[in-house]
Amino acid sequence: MKIMVVGGGGREHAIIKKLKENSAVDEIFALPGNGGIAKDATCVAIGAKEIEKIVEFAVNTGIDYAVVAPDDPLVLGCVDALEEKGISCFGPNAKAAIIEGSKVFSKNLMKKYNIPTAAYEVFTDMDSALSYLETAPIPTVIKADGLALGKGVIIAMTRDEAKDAVRSMMAEKVFGKSGDQIVIEEFLTGPEVSVLSFTDGKTVVPMISSMDHKRAGDNDTGLNTGGMGTVAPNPYYTDAIAAECMERIFLPTIKAMNAEGRTFKGCLYFGLMLTPNGPKVIEYNCRFGDPETQVVLPLLESDLLTVMQATTNGTLSETEVKFAQKNACCVIMASEGYPAAYDKGFPMDIPEAVWDRVYVAGAAVKDGVLVTNGGRVLGATAIAESLETAVENAYAIVKTIRFDNAYYRNDIGQRALQAGRN
Ligand code: AMP
Ligand code: GLY
Question: Is residue 102 included in any domain, yes or no?
Fold first, then answer.
């Protein structure tokens, strides 16, 4: 079989490595992939948003199955365009991907179908938003409606900060059209849990839970990033909470999307907060999380391609999805300065012995040498019986990898270890 994976980050590398375990897979193409992914797949210089070129490539190459991993192409209708040409895909169509593509859509969906989430108001006009903020409870949370490279959420600790955020989104248009509408919502507290799930629109199968570490610095300080590390499972996510989430959040979401004529197939990511008033949805993503995928998929014991195809074919209820009862930890090595400005182009030394545990996110090959080429450069994942050992081993891998300007957090997994002890 010829498989195509759209995207080029650590998440895509983890998907590709897992897909390769299936002996029916002859060749995997990554569009565009990256210098590290090139070790495991054939990289093709087509960007993840170049829908027409992606479709043309898939048709000309005779792709048997396509995995569209990032949010942008999904929201832009990459799956629709591929399916139109008869190419079977993993991922939601544009109508369903709106669950991530528009915060206003997802908030209104949750309200309509009684799915627990933060209380909110929607604004299309800046003056109304500013006047609402005169009396809104503080802290408050301001969200741009559309995709904003993961930066469209501002937690405002003061009224002035909240107003500045509204002005930057609605007047200065720092996120472009994504700021035409905004959501202002209640500030929630509690541990966060990422639950990725497989769904064929009828059945929803949650994957093992995970915990992201979004801030750049140790002890959750500094700027928000795409994610600096993950552990799985998430110790806060007990069996009782999982059962409650299935009943009050996961199944109602699948049903709600069906009722709206927007059947969701693929990976639906539930970003949850375990508040004192029960689990609530912070966000939906229409795709695998990054770097959640780098801890979740290594724990998957079932064949990924089989499970993915079951979501496409509507046979998920008959398909086994089994996870190892182990722990995983992924530590992201970034370029010093990320998520702000950083230098790149530094040669990377990844020992062959750890290669199978490394997921490359931002690297290119220059004159035959692998060099850094992004903010997040790679993730190192270790699996062990205990979380403590997984964390220790992930850092042991990190210490064998060298490139100039390398930066990583030193406390990935510490919060989870603490929670596990309580
Ligand atoms: P998002 O881009 O939607 O993942 O939001 C980024 C981060 O902002 C989340 O992971 C949370 O830590 C935080 N956040 C989002 N919404 C809220 C909220 N209503 N209350 C508290 N924190 C929030
Ligand atoms: N790690 C968070 C995300 O993928 O959105």
Answer: no
Tell me, what CATH number does 380's domain have? 3.90.600.10
- The phi-psi region of residue 224 (left if phi > 0; otherwise alpha if psi is between -120 and 50; otherwise beta) is beta
Query: What tens digit of pLDDT does each residue of 84-108 get?
Result: 999 999 999 999 999 999 999 999 9
Q: Domain holding 199: CATH number? A: 3.30.470.20
Q: Which atom of ligand 1 is nearest to the CA of 188?
A: 20
Residues 202, 311, single domain; the answer is: yes
Q: What is the widest separation between alpha-carbon atoms in the chain?
A: 61
290-341: pLDDT as tens digits: 999 999 999 999 999 999 999 999 999 999 999 999 999 999 999 999 999 9
Does any domain span residue 116?
A: no
Residues written for the chain: 422
Q: Which residue, judged by its Cα, is nearest atom 15 of ligand 1? A: 282
Residue where one domain finishes, among candidates 294, 318, 342: 318
Which ligand has its closest atom nearest to the C-alpha of 11? 2
Tell whether 104 is covered by a domain. no
Same domain, 201 and 314: yes
- Cα 146 to ligand 1 centre (Å): 15
372 shares a domain with 412? yes
- Does 185 sit in the ligand 1 pocket, CB within 6 Å? yes
Segments in 134-238 forming alpha helices (H): 159-170
How far is 215 from 342, CA to CA, in rounded Å? 16
Q: Is a pLDDT exceeding 80 seen at residue 410? A: yes
Determine if the pTM surpasses 0.90.
yes
Mean pLDDT of 358-381: 97
Q: Name the H helices within 43-125.
A: 51-61, 71-76, 78-84, 94-101, 103-112
Ligand in nearest proximity to the CA of 224: 1
Residue 211 lies in a domain: yes
Split into its structural domains, the chain has a count of 4
Ligand nearest to the CA of 292: 2
